[in-house]
Amino acid sequence: MSTSPATPLEEALARFEGARLAFVDGVWVNESVRDRDLKYYVFDWDDNVLCMPTRIHMERLSHGRWVPHVCSTATFSVIRNDTARYRYPQGRRELAFVEFQDACTPLGGGGFMDDLERALDAIARGRRRPPPSFGTFRKTLVEGRLFAIVTARGHASETLRQGVARFIERVLTPVERETMLINLRGYSYCFDGVRTFPSQTAVLQRYLALNRYHAITSPDFDRRLAEEAPGANTQEARKRFAINDFVEHIIRILEETGMDALRRPVSVGFSDDDPHNVVAVHDYIAHVLSRRFPALKFCVYDTSDGAGAHKVTIAGQLELPLE
Predict the structure, then answer these.
(1) What is the SS3 string spanning 119-167?
(2) DSSP character string of 288-323
(3) Rounded CA gap, 286 and 242, in Å?
(4) Which pTM value belongs to this model?
(5) CA 49, CA 47: separation in Å to the nearest integer?
(6) Structure confidence by residue, pLDDT tens digits, 86-108
(7) What is the pLDDT of residue 314?
């Protein structure tokens, strides 16, 4: 006698073994999130979450002449400080990163979603291995944890948010999406007192709106820096500002819940594939953020080798050396 295959919801519920689940307003919620550790993440995007095919247009010195040189983001992270041999076209950064903007240009800029699809296709078809933080980002979404995207791109925040929504559609399995929704409802149920749940789409949109999307060379980010941190001109300084913004954001959310969250272990992880950014962020966390927020644990993940992540933990003081 054959039995019907389990639905994605039934499979998801089976994975919550030992968790406290409640059936509220016709849907399942995970009450066990109340006792979870408080982990949050900051992700660089390119070559860390996804290997996007977006190109950087540089010039290279060859036999005494400057010639066009198109490179990937991974290559740029290696050559960007080699100003003797590489430079921006006409000395203008915006010409080098034209493909990293939302505005349409003759060189084909503004194709973030197209590049996202191509990057996901390459993984789905086995042509490329997932980058080091791909799995962590996926797990973060399934667990419904808050995160920030901090990238040197120049897109609007909404563009990045749409990219994350598409990542959820394409990467998460139906069972993982059901698991994510059960977790998200659990957070609203336990910490916001929600007892009536809207559609799945509304639950997801609320979650996406709670996160941060910082493209640190975008016009919007430039305007914010001009008001709040006019001296933050370098890429590293801009990332530091964005990370600080996310930390303050999660602290506000924890305080607004009314729970005694800040007496529980809270950790913030940052991952980046650019060694220059890793060192700059590590120093900023060690000397500034860990002193401002001594109760928080910060973890810095260097994913520059493309294979894994070298982890450095900072909690009030440095525990592991950065090599």
Answers:
(1) HHHHHHCCCCCCCCCHHHHHHHHHHCCCEEEEECCECCHHHHHHHHHHH
(2) IIHHH-TTEEEEEEE-TTSS--EEEEEESEE-S---
(3) 16
(4) 0.89
(5) 6
(6) 999 998 988 998 899 886 544 44
(7) 63
